[in-house]
Amino acid sequence: MQNNRLSIGLTIFLGIAFTSMGLIIGCAAARVAVLTCIRDGATQHPETGNCQLEKSTLLTPWAKTSNKVALQDIHKAESVEIDVETYTVQLQLKNNKDKFSLYQSPYSQNSQQLATLINSFLANTNTKSFRFQEGGGIGETLALLSVCGFGITLTYFGLMGWKASWLASNHQQSEPN
């Protein structure tokens, strides 16, 4: 009986741990970044418009940060190595002082491709808009839901085992010897 209670307690503990892990990862680690650049169609100057970068996490989209930069202030996009095996894409502004970090990846090829796409958009004034989203895909969402679902399932079965054990011990106590 004591061994059964220990395994039930462990099941409940692991269930709560997996659920908490999924929620913490979703709130803190699963980041979503969306870069949207739009040229103003109403003006004669194709370099006018703006780029907006919105960052949030997968489970807390209301805690979004947003930064805007005028299209005419952007000099170029470049892939930069931050540290060993971490690369970012930065928008270098024409004042040469400010840089706008967009995207981080462990793969230099990904950040170089994004920098090339942004530079192509900046050079081709016929392109009216550009949009890039990092994170928040179906794969990340399913992984987080799986971890949370596994945790909830473990917690549920642990609680059902605890309830059954409690009912059995009450039933044994009520039986005459």
Detailed description of the structure:
The chain has 177 residues and is α+β, with helices and mostly antiparallel strands. The protein contains three helices and seven strands, in the order αββββββαβα. The protein has helices spanning 2-29, 108-123, 138-174, and strands spanning 31-39, 49-57, 65-70, 74-83, 86-93, 99-105, 129-134. The chain has a four-stranded antiparallel β-sheet. It has a three-stranded antiparallel β-sheet with strand order 4-5-6, with helices on one face. A hairpin with a 5-residue loop joins β5 (86-93) and β6. α1 (2-29) runs antiparallel to α3 (138-174). The protein is elongated. The model has no long low-confidence stretch (mean pLDDT 80).
Spatial gap, N to C terminus: 19 Å
Report strand %: 25-35%
Number of contiguous helices: 3
Biggest sheet, spatial arrangement of strands: 3-2-1-7
What structural class results from the helix and strand content? alpha+beta
Number of strands: 7
**Radius of gyration from CA coordinates:** 26 Å
Helix content: 40-55%
Please trace the helix and strand order, writing H or E for each element. HEEEEEEHEH
Globular, elongated, flat, extended or rod-shaped: what is the shape? elongated
Low-confidence stretches: none
| Overall pLDDT score | 80
Give the biggest sheet: 4 strands, antiparallel
